[in-house]
Design a protein that fits this description.
With 130 residues, this protein is an alpha+beta fold. It has one domain. The chain has two helices and four strands, in the order αββββα.
Amino acid sequence: MLLYFAIKTDVVMKSILCFALLVILYNIPSFSQSKTETDIDSLLINAKKGIYWGLMNIPIKKARVDKSLIQNDRLIARIKVIKELNGVKVESTGYHNTNEMTIVIYRSAESLIKDGYIKKGDLEIYSDDE
């Protein structure tokens, strides 16, 4: 009887162990996916900081500006603001740990004036003849 009880207990323990192992293995991808989501959120926030900085610092006299945003001794974003035909192109690359994400937006002179980023006449309106 004791031998039967020991064998039955061993089978139950193996079943519990297998179930626990399956639960752990099933949850491992969700842990890594959660970290990836967190990294992407941080990248997006840093790239957006660069976009907003670029929109607030559109060059009046220069055709382009390249800057880096640094916070707490870390590179947050690299920004390029380039004057285009009747508007600007703002390119921001956000950094987080060893990852990077680039966002590029194009804004017309009219929308920049309407949103208050520039005053009328601040941004030269280029023509195809120039």
